[in-house]
Amino acid sequence: MMAAPALAPAATDRAAAPMRVEMVVPSLVTAGMEMVVATLVRALARRGHDVGVTCNQEIGAVGEQLRAEGVSVQLVPAPGILTNIWPRDLARWFAERRPDIVHVHSGVWLKAARAAHLAGRIPVVHTVHGLLDVEPWHERPIKQVAARYTAAIITVSEALRLDLRHRVGVLSPEPRVILNGIDTVRFAPGPRTMQLRSAIGVDASALVIGHVGRLAPVKNHRLLVDAFARLPDSLGDVQLALVGDGELRPTIEAQAERLGVRRRVHLVGEQRDVAPLLPDLDLFVLCSLSEGTSISLLEALSAGVPCVATAVGGNVAVLANEAAGRLVPSDDIEALATAMTEILGSPQVQRELSARARARATDAYGEEAMTRAYESVYRAAIASRHVR
């Protein structure tokens, strides 16, 4: 019998070989996109890849944590719109770092893609994580140009893929969806930790509604506070904990004061680790005006917290069209108040939604599936470069 060709094992070895991957982000502050990047960095490193992160604006708390874990996190400033044309320092850094693939995330697409091109035509993968609160006029042409330097374009939801195609006009390379993944072991159902409840001064008997996210207009806290103020007294002691910080903090405080609920609305501030806080919640509410695939919503689902979200962007898919939670319009105060009342008023509904939430997270949003999908995209991008 003729022996198998020697090239076959070699090809298999190349396909499984570790890659040098450089992530590029504006910063690694504590926010949704940044947490996804950190999760992917850690997962790729565990699988044997050499992964670094380049920040263009600041390192941030998440970046410092990755550094402490031994990850290369480098600050390479690239300020202003002109660095989209000539990102000299970034190109020099890529030439020094010599990655096999540059993975660019929202906010720095064109300048990072141009820098990778100038540094030796390094293949680029770009992930769209969401939309800006207000997109300036030049965003569309910048994205259209950036696509020309990009081997693969990923969006974290179908809604974002359609937006990129139809509104922005990016058709090539064809955008595809890779769902965000989270650590479903760290974010898991468990007994109350009392960490959040102690911080806001309530005991185990209170009902606590939670929201995790920056205090910014797109997160639509106005809707949540308005609906919270309309919850019936029959529910008993109900508290609202807002985890995060941002420009709208004074506005939210004033709104709660005006509605007579200020003592029950707690602005907890930014928290680096929300995993131990989630078991203290009876209900998680995400009331955004737009979303990609919300990490805070996925984490709440994975922790088995019943969820209500506005029916925008990726929220509909995450909650599987209400199979794993409740969906409400982004401008309907009564609908949100009714959904919260229904869940908080029924321990049976809470148990059912908790089980469905956990099952949805583990079935569709585990980090391993996300990591393997990106590995496949990276290898295809590298291979296409060699073919050309």
Q: List low-pLDDT spans.
A: 1-15
Rg computed from alpha carbons, rounded to a whole number of angstroms: 22 Å
Strand content: 15-25%
Shape: elongated
CATH architecture name of the largest domain: 3-Layer(aba) Sandwich
Main-sheet strand order equals 3-2-1-4-5-6-7
Helix content: 40-55%
Give a description of the structure.
- The structure is a single chain.
- By secondary structure, this protein is of the alpha/beta class.
- The protein folds into 2 domains: 16-181 and 367-387, Rossmann fold (3-Layer(aba) Sandwich), CATH 3.40.50; 195-364, Glycogen Phosphorylase B (Rossmann fold, 3-Layer(aba) Sandwich).
- 42% of the residues lie in helices and 17% in strands.
- It is built from 15 helices and 13 strands.
- The protein has helices at 7-16, 32-46, 60-68, 88-97, 109-118, 139-147, 158-168, 195-200, 221-229, 249-258, 295-302, 315-318, 333-344, 347-364, 367-387; strands at residues 20-27, 50-58, 72-75, 101-105, 124-128, 152-155, 176-177, 207-212, 238-243, 265-269, 283-286, 307-310, 326-328.
- The strands form 2 sheets. A 7-stranded parallel beta sheet has the order 3-2-1-4-5-6-7, with helices on both faces.
- Helix 3 links the parallel strand 2 and strand 3.
- Helix 4 packs across helix 5 (109-118) and helix 9 packs across helix 13 (333-344).
- The protein is elongated and about 65 Å long.
- The two termini are 37 Å apart.
- The model is unreliable at 1-15 (pLDDT under 50).
